[in-house]
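Table S2 (text version). Query chain:
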Amino acid sequence: MKTFKQFINEQKEYLIMGDTKKAYDMERVIVSAAGGENFVSDLIPNSEKVGKKIINDLKLTGKSYFPKNSYPATDKWAKYFLPDKPKGSTLTPKTDFIIGNKKISLKTGDAVLMSGERKEATATFYNAMDNTKTLDDAVKRLKKHIDNMLPSTDMTKYNIKGNKTQLSKAGKFAEIEILKKADEAHKAFKKDMRDVFINSEGFGREFTFEAMTGKIKFGDNDGTADHFLVTDYDGNATLHKVTKSSDEYVSKIMKYVKPDATFKTTQKVSAKLKSPSNKKGGTGYYTFWSALKVGVKMIQEEEIKNADLLNESIFDIIKRTFKKAINWIKSFFKKIYSFVSKSYKSLMEFMVLEPVVKYNNMVKW
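Corresponding structure-token output:
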């Protein structure tokens, strides 16, 4: 005997499957009414009349047909899935059918905005953020934190004497102190990213627009929807043209979507850029942390090795280590600012940050 829970779950599955079939029937009903392959639904009463009502009321004309089952993603979209490729439901077209020159997405009630895959949401996030034109502000904030990274040169905080053993320890102290300040800068930038996001008035609009239409994902091919036909099963329908993020219907839908994002530190593979220490212009893999640790450690070891305790104090050596390390860091960052200014993805990967995107996927159309 089935449990009550099993019974309820089966009923939910039955209803979902029934609604999906009925919605797909409505697509075929409309295409049939617009001159496509003839179809009569056994789920929609008077489906032929319903189809004709929709076509006539909305004044839809032209050849009607269904798009392909999937379309390739553009390079601009696919890069967010590396090292894999977009596949499965993420390549399902946003367009349900085409009538004349209108690429139509049909909505017969509450329906999902997009596939719900994590990489799909991430790709939508990055493209939306790039379109907000706030990247320069984010990079400027990073530069501010780097410029303010100099540790305290008050040597009284260290219990250091003038011998080689203590000098070695002092060098380690210098390394730790600089990396501590770097950690403070990283945390401050992470907070700044949240501020930039919250103050990006266009983000919700850009995110919703792309999720609705697939304009960037499909590059305006037949997979990109530019009209939204909202109807009940009696044929009471409205048609909304959506070709740009500023369109009125996007404003309505974004109120339901309510996209948001926070930022977490990640251990993902670091960004690729030219090494500033390689005069031949070779490439290497660097993140904020890997670059700092390599550079600071290199300078710290060099300064301790070449220290002259007979002619200068240990405190002067540590101060010089601080200064050289910070100058190296600033020089390094000058060279990578152009790299991280290419896209939010470049900036986030270099700073070892990852967006955590939240949004309502079930939308009342």
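Notes on Table S2: Residues 1-18, 269-284 have pLDDT under 50 and may be disordered. The longest strand covers residues 102-107.
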